[in-house]
Amino acid sequence: MPDSKSNNAAIDAKRDIRISKSLAKLLRHNAKSEGLSIDSDGYVPLSEIISHNYMKTNHATIDDIMRIVETNSKKRFKLKQTGAHSYHICALQGHSIPSIAYGQSENLAPIVDTWPKFIVHGTYVEKLPLIIESGGLSKMSRNHIHFTFAIPAKFAKYVSNSDDDIGGTVISGIRSSCNCLIVMDVEKLKGSNLPFFQSKNGVILSPGDQNGFISTDFIEKIIDHKRGDITKSILSGK
């Protein structure tokens, strides 16, 4: 007979994923259009979130949201207590709402003196032609281009022979499904006027230049997770 406890756990996990996705949609993209009170740091009163139809559809409770914030593997959300029994919640990055702070804020620290060893952007091999043809990485509809400060495990062998030399453990900032890694030239970035920030959950963020781009001139290496370094073959057509 099926294990009822296992089935219930699977159902609960799927429900948590639905609630998490709904939270991300509201806090990153739709808070204003849905009439929620969102401040410049991206915080929304939890009371407004829990009353929204996105949450009601999933029968989400405050305890559900608090658990999801605590257990989310990407650490996407942050809660802060604003009163004896009141809380505000925000997404730590990924916003497309223009009024959310692009620069230094409560949840974004500027990278000025101490830079990470690596600044890497995860993407897909099939996206590379568009990136090269357009002249670089684009923030597109979001407020920032997203990076991480470490080399994900499946790319590590193409960067270093030592697990201690890949920058640390990736928590957030890159999709696990990415099959291609763009490694930026950190020394060149240091000498540029491009602003970089680090979020509370470790994601490296940049709004890019005045057009929302970071030029291919700042790319040091492009790594395919199966073929290794493909920089020359990709950039030779620039």
TrEMBL record:
Its EC number is 2.7.1.160. Pfam families: PTS_2-RNA. GO terms for molecular function: tRNA 2'-phosphotransferase activity. It catalyses: 2'-phospho-[ligated tRNA] + NAD(+) = mature tRNA + ADP-alpha-D-ribose 1'',2''-cyclic phosphate + nicotinamide. It comes from the Eukaryota. InterPro entries: Ptrans_KptA/Tpt1, RNA_2'-PTrans_C, RNA_2'-PTrans_N. GO terms for biological process: tRNA splicing, via endonucleolytic cleavage and ligation. Keywords: NAD, Transferase. The keyword Transferase applies. Catalyzes the last step of tRNA splicing, the transfer of the splice junction 2'-phosphate from ligated tRNA to NAD to produce ADP-ribose 1''-2'' cyclic phosphate. Belongs to the KptA/TPT1 family. This is 2'-phosphotransferase.
